[in-house]
Amino acid sequence: MKKILTISPGSTSTKAGLFTSRGKIDEISVSVEQEYARKNVVQEYGYRRDLLKRFLEKTDLSGLAAVVGRGAPLKPMEGGVYKITPKLLSDLRECRYSNHASNLGGLLAHYFGELYHVPAWIIDPVSVDEFDEISRISGVPEIKRRSRSHALNIKATARKWCDEHGATLEKENFVVAHLGGGISVCALKLGKIRDVNDGLLGMGPFSPERAGALPISGLLDLAFSGDYTRKELDHYLSRECGLKGYLKTNDAREVVRRIQEGDEYARLIMDAMIYQIEKEIGAMLAACHYAVKAVLITGGLAHCSYITRRLQDHFSRFNLHIIPGENELEAMADGGFRALKGDIPIQDYV
Ligand SMILES: Nc1ncnc2c1ncn2[C@@H]1O[C@H](COP(=O)(O)OP(=O)(O)OP(=O)(O)O)[C@@H](O)[C@H]1O
Ligand SMILES: CCCC(=O)O
Q1: What is the number of the ligand closest to the CA of 128?
Q2: I want to staple 151 with a disulfide (CB 3.0 to 4.6 A). Which of 59, 124, 204, 211 is the partner?
């Protein structure tokens, strides 16, 4: 039976899964020890590769047909399956579009694809760009709104919901909110991400560790304070702000624990994050002219009932469903098997 190996590097761990078309047969999560964590993720490549290799040496890989890695921020591209070409590899190695842990997804998939003599792909990377032209206009001629999102989980969650409810993704509109360490809220129209806040930097709600959209004058003050280089400010706004900036933790469970113990400041900050999420969902509902099949809430924060209860109350008339977690390994395997069967094309990154 054919197998697919999927690899999803996150900021603190590398997850890998082995699948047949019937489902998962093995999974591992290897933590990155702090002493090996580097400011530039690509420096962690050798360390993470060797940890995975040790696991795979003990695994039955007979029937392996492809390796799929999590797709990083790359050049803007249509959703789907992409071959890992030399150009794609060099963009990942140079962190050309972002210093993001998922840069290692394509690099590791390529390595193991060569090792086991099978094709290596990425699927629905962070930079999936299917915007309507109107979504690109920011209000400043030199600045374009960018599409960067949790595209893989967003599409997989909507596809899964459709399979379970007898609907066809390509015929319906949804608002999908991925609430994780970063937050992406999108207007998914007829299977395409037609609008989304840039989940990495500068748009949408603040998140457990990202700043979200900011008042411009305050941002200019920070940028010209002399306290940050361009790179440092980018890192600060995308990794050290949000819940972490205000409360020194990016763990929603810890914040809820503090609220339950009577910490009113923690409540204010958590409620502000939920308020901003509600406003973004409202904006994407407007982008869909309020005609959606459902509003889907996914990602790690969708496990947090303090948050989901509020969203359920607020959006009950829009058929809201909570589908927690990120299921990225499964999503990559699903796309990989569809590509192996020839149901979807395998595209070139040019
Ligand atoms: N079971 C849970 N209950 C409550 N909160 C949770 C639960 N699991 C995860 N979270 C919270 O979800 C948030 C995001 O965590 P998660 O590990 O899913 O994000 P990530 O994978 O690092 O980021 P991203 O989804 O942006 O790739 C954290 O604040 C975490 O505390
Ligand atoms: C925007 C998608 C990825 C992230 O937030 O890390």
Answers
A1: 2
A2: 124
CA dihedral 242, 245, 248, 254 (to 10 degrees): -10
Cα 246 from chain centroid (whole Å): 23
The closest-lying atom of ligand 2 relative to the alpha carbon of residue 199 is: 1
Do residues 333 and 26 make contact, with C-beta atoms less than 8 angstroms apart?
no
Mean pLDDT by 10 residues, the chain (350 residues): 94 89 90 71 92 92 97 95 96 92 96 98 96 97 96 95 97 97 97 96 95 97 97 92 96 97 98 98 98 97 98 96 93 96 94
Ligand 2 atom nearest to 238, measured from its CA: 5
Predicted pLDDT of residue 32: 75
Which ligand 2 atom minimizes the distance to the CA of 100? 6
Q: Which of 104, 186, 200 to mutate to test the pocket of ligand 2 (most atoms within 8 A of CB)?
A: 200
280-314 burial code (b ≥16 CB/10 A, e <16): bbbebbebbeeebbbbbbbbbbbebebbbebbeeb
Model ipTM?
A: 0.97
pLDDT of 41 reads 87
CA of 57 to the centre of ligand 2 (A): 31
Q: Retrieve residue 156's tokens.
A: 């997989």
State how beta strands 183-189 and 173-179 pair: antiparallel
